[in-house]
C-alpha cells in the first residue's frame, strides 16, 4: 500500500514534483499538437519547426505554472485547515483557474469550471471500486 507523503513532505517539494510531472505532460501534448497546428496553418520549413518548438514550450510552461499554483495551494490549504477533504481541492482549483484564466474575458467562469473539474477528479480518485 502507498504511504501518504503529504503529511511529512514540505509543500515546496510537492509543488516541484507536480511541476516536473505536469510540465512533462505539457511538453508531450505540445509535441503532439504542434505539428497538427502547423499543418493547419499551412506552415513549412523553418517556420513550421519554429511554430512547433514554440507550441511545445508554451504548453509545457502553462501546464507547469498551473501545477505549481494548484499543488502549492492544495497543500497549504490542507496544512492550514488540518483536514484532507474536497474543500481543499475546490479552493486550489478555483485559485489556479483564476490565475490561469486571468487574461481571458471570463476568468470567473474559467475559475469555477476548473475548481469543479478538480473536485470531480478528486472524488473519482478517492472513490473505491466495487
From TrEMBL:
Top-level taxon of the source organism: Eukaryota
Intracellular or extracellular location(s): Membrane
Keywords: Membrane, Transmembrane, Transmembrane helix
Membrane topology category: Multi-pass membrane protein
GO process terms (BP): protein insertion into mitochondrial inner membrane
GO molecular function, one term: protein transmembrane transporter activity
A Pfam family annotated for this UniProt entry: Tim17
An annotated GO cellular component: TIM22 mitochondrial import inner membrane insertion complex
PANTHER family found in the cross-reference section: MITOCHONDRIAL IMPORT INNER MEMBRANE TRANSLOCASE SUBUNIT TIM22, OUTER ENVELOPE PORE PROTEIN 16-4, CHLOROPLASTIC
Protein name as annotated: Outer envelope pore protein 16-4, chloroplastic isoform X1
Name of encoding gene: LOC105163121
